[in-house]
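Q: Convert this sequence to structure tokens.
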Amino acid sequence: MFGKWHRFRAGLALLGVLAVFGALLGRLAWIQLREHSRYADLARARHLQKVEIPAKRGMILDRNGRKLATSVQVNSVFACPNDIADGNKESVARGLSGTLKLPYTKVLALLQKDKDFIWIKRKVSAAEESALTRAKLEGVGLRAESQRFYPNDKLACHVLGFGDIDNKGLEGLEAAFNPELAGQSGYTVVERDGRQRQISKIDRPVVEPQHGNNLVLCLDIVVQTIAEEELDAACNKWNPTSACAIVMLPSTGDVLALVSRPAFDPNAPGQYPAASRRNICVTDSYEPGSTFKPFVVSAVLQRGLAKEDDIFFCHNGLFVVGSRRLHDHHPYGNLTVTDILAKSSNVGMAKLGLLLGPDNLYRCVTAYGFGKKTGVELPGEVPGMVRPRKAWSQFTMTSVPMGSEIAVTPVQLITGFCALANGGALMQPKIVQSLTDMSGVAVKDCSVPKRVRQVISPTVARQQLNPMMIKVVNEGTGKASRLAEYQVAGKTGTAQKLEGNVYSHSKFVSSFVGYAPANAPQVVVLVMMNEPKNGAYYGGTVAAPAVGQIIRRTLNYMNVEPCYVQSARL
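A:
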């Protein structure tokens, strides 16, 4: 009886084994006959890998071909967790943590992942690379990558911007021209073994990368350095909350220098607060104050409503318009139009605004481009603020001529001054000169000046307004910008800042815009100081000296012959 039961159980076990093997054979047959292509594709995907061939990012160069931004090769640290024995992962993590100054627990967590490849630290220093090479850690290696490098540190940082860890532009021209600079990556196909180690390249076509283009700017490193040095000196003296400086060629609109303060190092942007990365030349607008007065005067002259020597009574410094009381800093009586501008009389400007009338004043404001973006290639530009004509109140006619009830950006303001300096033509400001390929061959030419419109006639600009602007410097509020070598013309501005709906008596925006040589202008320079301190706030005191020094050093660099037209008392 026992033998029969034993044989029965053995038979059942044999049948079970045969059934299992039958099922396995059936499954194998199914895989081979019906799912062969699927599993073959999976195997190929495991052993064949598309490897990216990165495109080289284009350089950013100044107008003379000097490097402002380039790329250098650095190494990044990776690990292959599946190649590291489980018993060794803790020691490898300790080695990586100590060498790369990373948290041990974070590194160990990465190594314990079921991964064939994982980044440990991107773009390490030469010292870290050397230490890691000596450590010879299991399953750890280095891979070459490209890193953006700015050889001049903070110079032109707000123009250039910066990129992320993968070199994608985040701010400035790096962001605005990211597609042109980045190019298009290529790829090749390689064969790898079970541990993902490369065996060979497959005999298949290689898709070559399309390298990025170089960006050639209108900026000049030397002029940019001059502007930054002089603005920094002024900031050290007057301690403003923020400040900026711009240098432009009036005939073309080329931006030779553009500076914002505070600054940052684009090689390490994360070490600076967001406010330091703000390009206030294009992103911030403010009431321009008296720097706006020449535009209104130009409209009065252009329409023949008054001549430069016509006399206006300025009410001894107090002018009542409706329920509004306007004041001058000094009690002026009769002033010519020239003296109204030179002495920056608010009362006189209010009378000129009333003489123009609302429609003509509005046309004047918009003709110079205020209230619209200039189109300069920098990202983040705002249009400023010009209220619609229908929204003007009874006070607007006397406010706008004094530079109130209107907001401008620094780049808008200097662009308008370029029109005053060049004979009345409003030019679009530009900061990009061309795009070239890696060999230097031009791909796109952006150097042709763009004339927006003729705002005033050359006669009004050169024969009437220009002598008035010279008098501002020689005898008026802009004396601190005078130079022994060159005749400077320009206009000061000191604007009270709004705090809520009330003008502050302690916070000011101080500015000066000047150009030289006055009778044949080569450069226009703006300096703006936001909330200067240390006992002074007038534009003629705080901003004008810096403009004068930027003009002097820039014209010397440009080999502009000294004019010797005046004897400056500095």
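The chain has two domains: 51-190+200-217, 221-269+279-557.
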